[in-house]
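Subject: sequence -> structure tokens, single chain

Hey, anyone have a minute? Need the predicted structure for the following. Not urgent.
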Amino acid sequence: MKEKGWSPKPIDIICFTHYHADHISGLPGMLLTMGNAERTEPLLLVGPKGLTRVVSALRVIAPELPFEIECMELTGAGAEH
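Reply:
Had a minute. Here:
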């Protein structure tokens, strides 16, 4: 994104398919970058069961942000792989 000159500010939703480190460990840095881009609108995070717990643990690295984070955990058929 940085190389292309794109701002993360307009991102409204981030979706996670699973919680392997290569898919989720960059979240704290992205959240901090969004905060530094003067984001104030809420951000929706969507993922499988456990998302709230995983995000809470990662927020230790980015505890204070100028925007709210909402977590939506997907449940039901096909939600867990």
